[in-house]
Write a structure and sequence with these properties.
2 helices, 14 strands, 9% helix
């Protein structure tokens, strides 16, 4: 079972990048924040026999990183935070050319099997807040969530997404959280996780709503996302 800990890889990378840029740009009057701040969250699609490496920015926009000949994550498709600058050109495949200053993956995992009434006992029902930010988005085959909770020292958090039985075939999912410690222990901090939506979410031909449900510190909450099915046969 995949796990996620207190500090995300992105936070660590940003700290390193900040130190490096501080040395390179020693000025009291100017600071280029694009070198350390994430520009976007993307889907990293490794190169194949027929297609080059692409960074999928949203449902309709792909980027071509001119300074990355291959994916730093091997042949695995992942979601990642990235800091980049546009180069002004367009690749032969129509992708916008970008220069990647840094890139770091977030926890990327498939949906879990729904166990019905046993979901909470197996996957956890510890409270969590879903953060309203640009990282919280349903696109390109994924539900990506920035979440906030308490993190006890050395505790290992487990997060999962399951589909719920809903009337009329509606698309409803639940974010399950096991804090690995008492729910009121530890400091408040954020992390990001991306769930690859099951194939059934990409069967419709047009956009539809996905209702996300979770247990927050103030009770049950929900939010609706408009999702456009991914139609590239999983590539």
């Amino acid at each position: 079972m995949n796990t996620t800990k207190l500090l995300s890889h992105a936070a660590l990378l940003l700290a390193v990048a900040f130190a490096a840029v501080a040395c390179d740009y020693d000025s009291d009057e100017y600071y280029e924040y694009s070198y350390v701040s994430p520009t976007a969250i993307v889907t990293v699609k490794p190169a194949s026999d027929s297609l080059p490496l692409r960074l999928q920015l949203d449902d309709s926009t792909a980027l071509r990183p001119v300074n990355l000949p291959s994916s730093p994550f091997g042949d695995k498709e992942v979601r990642a935070l990235v800091g980049f600058v546009y180069q002004g050109g367009t690749a032969p495949g129509g992708e916008r050319e970008v220069w990647v200053n840094w890139i770091d993956s977030v926890l990327t995992k498939p949906m879990a099997e729904s166990l019905g009434q046993a979901n909470d006992s197996v996957y956890g029902d510890d409270p969590v807040e879903i953060v309203d930010s640009w990282e919280t988005v349903a696109e390109d085959g994924y539900l990506t969530l920035r979440f906030r909770t308490r993190w006890a020292p050395s505790a290992v958090h487990r997060v999962n997404l399951v589909r719920l039985d809903a009337p009329g075939g509606q698309y409803e999912v639940r974010f399950c959280h096991d804090a690995g410690a008492p729910a009121d222990a530890g400091v408040v901090a954020d992390d990001v996780v991306a769930f690859r939506l099951a194939d059934e979410f990409n069967a419709p031909d047009s956009a539809f709503d996905i209702t996300l449900r979770w247990k927050s510190y103030s009770g049950e909450k929900s939010h609706k996302f408009t999702y456009r099915p991914r139609k590239d046969a999983g590539k």
